[in-house]
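Please fill in the sequence for the structure shown.

STRUCTURE ENCODING:
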């Protein structure tokens, strides 16, 4: 009789446990379903937002310019191993696709080529109207960016591209100097996030550090004060490029 009571008690406990497990399982399934639905809903919203952004871009003046110059951009981007959307993002940053854009220091055109750089590229590519022809300006700009890439061969592609963009904007010497400071602090010299902050340490006021890094106590390529512009230049292009990869 005692064994029967114990068995009955155990059966009741097992039934109670089974009910709890079933209820818990149902709740877990409901939570999982809700989570899945939330993920699906978020993805749908993200896709709708990307479609909206694509339409907004393509119907803007910049979008019309991208469509207009896309063939020449793709042609030379492919020749030098770039994603054409990176070049489009760079042109937006450089000139906003304004064909007659001119900077305060004399850079001109869609890709803001400096006169001295234009003369060098004219000899190397045998083209004459870099400063006047939008198509030649694009050709020269992509070629010049590719030359900057050659300075950073030991970097992974994303870092290499961002270092090259910084070099395009500020000059390779500034990036080299920042790399030397990075090496002084025993940090990687071929990663943009690591090198980037050291661009701000090339000012005259950083002379104490310079004495530790260079024998003559100053950066090899001179003092540099345009670091914020260069850092923003690279970051803005990279952010826009990530977007363009999704909508173009």
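FILLED IN BY: designer on duty
SEQUENCE:
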């Amino acid at each position: 009789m005692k064994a029967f009571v114990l068995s009955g008690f155990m059966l009741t406990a097992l039934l109670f446990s089974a009910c709890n497990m079933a209820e818990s399982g149902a709740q877990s399934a409901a939570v999982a379903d809700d989570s899945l639905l939330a993920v699906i809903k978020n993805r749908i919203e993200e896709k709708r937002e990307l479609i909206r952004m694509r339409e907004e871009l393509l119907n803007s003046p910049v979008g019309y310019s991208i469509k207009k110059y896309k063939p020449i951009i793709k042609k030379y981007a492919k020749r030098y191993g770039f994603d054409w959307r990176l070049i489009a993002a760079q042109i937006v940053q450089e000139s906003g696709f304004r064909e007659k854009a001119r900077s305060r220091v004399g850079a001109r055109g869609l890709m803001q080529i400096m006169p001295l750089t234009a003369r060098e590229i004219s000899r190397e590519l045998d083209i004459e109207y870099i400063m006047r022809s939008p198509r030649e300006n694009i050709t020269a700009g992509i070629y010049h960016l590719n030359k900057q890439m050659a300075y950073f061969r030991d970097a992974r592609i994303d870092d290499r591209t961002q270092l090259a963009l910084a070099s395009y904007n500020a000059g390779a010497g500034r990036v080299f100097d920042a790399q030397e400071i990075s090496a002084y602090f025993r940090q990687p010299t071929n990663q943009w996030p690591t090198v980037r902050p050291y661009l701000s340490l090339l000012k005259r006021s950083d002379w104490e550090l310079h004495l530790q890094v260079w024998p003559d106590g100053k950066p090899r390529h001179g003092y540099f004060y345009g670091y914020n512009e260069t850092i923003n230049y690279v970051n803005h292009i990279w952010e826009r490029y990530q977007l363009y990869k999704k909508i173009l």
